[in-house]
Amino acid sequence: MRRCSIRAHAVTAGNGPAKGKQVLGEAGYGHLNAQGYRMVDAYFHEYMNVGRTFPDGTYTCPSSKQVGKLC
Fold first, then answer.
1. Which residues contact residue 39 at a Cβ distance below 8 angstroms, ignoring those fewer than 6 apart?
2. CA–CA distance, 4 with 44 (Å, rounded to integer)
3. DSSP at 15
């Protein structure tokens, strides 16, 4: 089996709340929990390592285990 060696280039935001954060490029899968199951709860704000305020006003910080991950 051949493995693909093409990698996506990282692109960072120029302005706004994501300024200087990676917004395009390589993304990993969620981290493994203690039982060895893949966690699939990474959101785009965690990929970028920024917090998010939801419509109901709830604010959430990004999980350090999900930075750079999407699933």
1. 30, 31, 32, 33, 65, 66
2. 25
3. S
Query: What's the farthest any 2 CA atoms get from each other in the chain?
Result: 49
pLDDT in tens, 18-44: 788 888 888 777 778 889 888 776 677
Interval 3-16 mean pLDDT: 74
Question: Which residue type sits at 37?
Answer: Y
Residues in the chain: 71
Give percent of the chain with pLDDT exceeding 90.
8
Closest CA to 46 of 25, 13, 70, 19: 70
